[in-house]
Hints:
Distance between the termini: 13 Å
Largest sheet: 7 strands, mixed
CATH superfamily of the largest domain: Medium-chain alcohol dehydrogenases, catalytic domain
Amino acid sequence: MSRSVEVLAPGEHRLVTREVPEPGPGEVRVRVAAAGICLSDRELYEGHRAPGYVRYPVVPGHEWAGTVEAAGPGVDPALVGRPCVAEGFRSCGVCERCRHGETSLCTAGYAETGFTEPGAFADHLLVPARLLHPLPEGTDLRAAALLEPAAVVAAAVRAGRPRPGMRVAVVGAGTLGLLAVQLLAASSPAELTVVEPRSARREQALRHGASGVMEPKEAERDAYGRFDLVVETAGAPATAAGSCLLARRGGRVVLTGMFAAGAVGIDPVHLSVSQLEVRSVFGASSADWAEAVRAFGLGLLDPGPLVSHEFPLERFGEALALVGGGDPQTGKVLLLP
């Protein structure tokens, strides 16, 4: 039998037990080892996710790692037994955006594991084999569960095109921010500064490779116009506008945070006068996933220390309450089926 956490409607969930699912043509069944909870999962549970980007009832869980347990018709049986992660977006692979490699922008309609398709808050998960990224034998699957946010960070870093000797700022020191610090440190920046209001998170950023840290007010006073590249990861109401002010004239800004309505707008006068290059990131493409998995395998990304709490499926409600609760000691929260 296979257990899963099913969100029936906003604010309503149950632990259900069903027969172990059988993979169909082109699918694999994964035995989930660990699944991360992020703010978007809490938004899903509370009913705050934008219409069209969730389908109730749903089993959440888009950050995960596990082991291939069974292969459906047409799938290479050699995959069975392999540790793996998989892309969340169920891209069609044939539309114009997919053909250009922008699989996170597939125009065939939004479909994503854990939001519109059954996710990994479960003992078992079915995914298309074409979305798998096999991992080396002996991989720490608890750490690998963070490869989904790492892929988003890889998208941001690829968009930012860091070069050795650049002055780089990361705004926010949550999971995305700390992963960004790790990946950006590999580009040998002259300066890698994290802007973060919480002292505990600033200290953590230094342990993960930042060369310096600032509080937002300190950055506003001393660092506007200073950085060649600014990677925004917080998604707070003022961080998009503030990130643009941190960048030097002709600099680059990459926005990875998911902003809500009412966020402070970016000043168009400042944009035009400063000739900034501003990019946003929505999820991760197949290439971004490949980059994150490669960096993980090389040891450039070490997500394991970001995990602060682990819970069984039965304690989903308790685990979810920690995410976004404001405690700076709460890092990544995992469910371990």
